[in-house]
Amino acid sequence: MTTTTAGRLADVVAPLVGELPVRLRAWDGSEAGPADAPMVELRSPQALRRLLWHPGELGAAQAYVTGEADLPGDLGGTLDLLMAAGRDTAPAGVRRRALALLRAARVALADGLVGAPPAPPATQARVRGRLHSRARDRASISHHYDLSNEFYGLILDESMAYSSGYFTSPDRTLAEAQHDKLALICAKLGIGPGDTLLDVGCGWGSLTLHAARHTGARVVGVTISPEQQRFVQGRIDDLGLGDRAEARLCDYRDVTGSYDAVASVEMGEHVGEGNYPTYARVLHDRVRPGGRVLIQQMSRTGRHPGGGPFIESFIAPDMHMRPVGETVAHLERADLEVRDVHALREHYVATVARWLERFDAHLDRLTDLVGEEMVRVWRLYLVGGGAAFRDGRMGVDQILAVRPGADHDLPLARGGDVVRR
Questions:
Q1: Could you report the per-residue pLDDT of 172-222, keeping only the tens digit for each?
Q2: 316 pLDDT tier (thresholds 50, 70, 90)
Q3: Which of 131, 181, 284, 359 is the most buried (most CB within 10 A)?
Q4: How far, in Å, CA of 388 to CA of 57, rounded?
Q5: What is the pLDDT of residue 61?
Q6: Residue 341 forms beta bridges with which residues?
Q7: pLDDT band for position 31 (cuts 50, 70, 90)
């Protein structure tokens, strides 16, 4: 019988995976597994306690962000290896699962790990109240978006676009790809001088400012984040765009008026499945008959429409994604005529890769701003998110629709993409 801590932990998972796919180092310094495999460190017994209380992704994420566990080599490569091992063990029989559970219980008892569950990490979201009530939505948005404008400014490009860029060629920079994405949206919406645009969920104002500056349209951006609203209005004032742009602190359900075009870029994921018909109806009601609506939105198939236990607990509480076809059906039920669906999944892979480059380049300052634990949350988020888009577990699409009731002026043929700056 194995006597080292690492060896006993390897025995726990042996009924499921056989030989360990990684090199495991336990808190006592003992090691097990192939010598040339990527390293997984359990630096504290607390990591195992978290995994016992929350088996799978949540417990592992909690242990990683607190530093109780670490993947000190290539984080992405090690995560890929562990996910592949997880897929291979999914069909494991009841007897093998029961044996693994029995061995885990023995290790826990022997090492004194049985007890109350550890407290959640400080970075884990704590939102209360009725799902997608206005107060809870504000709390969820605040958890993710109010880390500070400087934090996001160090990761995003100069436009502060927090959504997939559009890479017209592989060598485009992040700033160029975001410019091209914003230009593409404006072109699809067909807006020009004197037109009115509503930007639902404007974030830090990338589309609001781009449309006002480059198309001459009059733009209203709405957000429920006070920090974002102040930031966007400040940029509007600094750029002298006060006659063409405005940032309002407003829930999408409270927006009034009629606009020539409506856009909503990666905001629909946050309204929830139950509220999506209301969201779609707002988009319909706020655009004039014959006017265009463009949504850029992430899609997901399979289990975990919120993105999985880690994303739902640490990044975006209450988020809901679905296959793109189901979103199209929601829009059609809201009496919008869907004219075009443009898949951009590979573009998000390139976008996240560039965000991660900026993240690494500014690591010291980011750590000063939000602390080591939040930095570990974001590294896991960026690396895992990039892999999800790469592997097709998530997608992102631009959906162009028109409100019936008047003639539209969509071109007969789908033209070129954008004119580069």
A1: 999 999 999 999 999 999 999 999 999 999 999 999 999 999 999 999 999
A2: confident
A3: 181
A4: 14
A5: 96
A6: 399
A7: very high
pTM over 0.85: yes
CA distance 189 to 399: 11
Residue with tokens 């209360």, as numbered in its chain: 128
Question: Are residues 20 and 37 in contact, defined by beta-carbon separation less than 8 angstroms?
Answer: yes
Distance of CA 205 to the CA centre of its chain: 18
**Rounded distance between C-alpha atoms, residue 117 and residue 358, angstroms:** 36
State CA 354 to chain mean position distance: 15
Q: Which long-range contacts (CB under 8 A, 24 or more apart) does 228-237 make?
A: 228/145, 228/202, 228/203, 228/204, 231/149, 231/160, 231/204, 231/205, 232/202, 232/204, 232/205, 232/208, 235/205, 235/209, 236/205, 236/208, 236/209, 236/212
Using CA atoms, how far apart are residues 38 and 17, in angstroms rounded to an integer? 16
- Determine the distance from the C-alpha atom of residue 186 to the mean position of all C-alpha atoms in its chain, rounded to a whole number: 24
SS3 199: strand
> What is the C-alpha separation between 260 and 189, in angstroms, rounded?
9
Rg (CA), the chain: 24
Tokens of 379: 């590294």
The answer to whether the CB of 161 falls within 8 A of the CB of 182 is yes
Torsional sign, CA 35, 41, 43, 46: negative
Q: What is the pLDDT of residue 1?
A: 52
Q: For residue 360, give every residue at least 6 positions away whose Cβ sits within 8 Å of its Cβ, in sequence order, or none.
A: none
How far is CA 241 from each of CA 158, 160, 210, 220, 312, rounded to the nearest angstrom? 17, 17, 11, 12, 37
Q: Which long-range contacts (CB under 8 A, 24 or more apart) does 390-393 make?
A: 390/349, 392/345, 393/300, 393/301, 393/302
Token couple for 135:
């107060």
Strand ranges of the sheet holding 218-223, from the earlier edge strand across to the other edge: 245-249, 218-223, 196-200, 259-265, 287-300, 394-402, 337-343
> For 134-161, how does the pLDDT look when each residue is reduced to its tens digit (9 = 90+)?
878 777 767 667 788 999 999 999 999 9
Question: How crowded is the C-beta side of 62, counted as CA atoms within 13 Å?
Answer: 26
Q: Which amino acid is at 305?
A: P
Ramachandran angles phi, psi of 219, nearest 5° = -120, 135
**Above 70 in pLDDT, residue 375?**
yes
Question: Could you tell me the two tokens for 84?
Answer: 């592949």
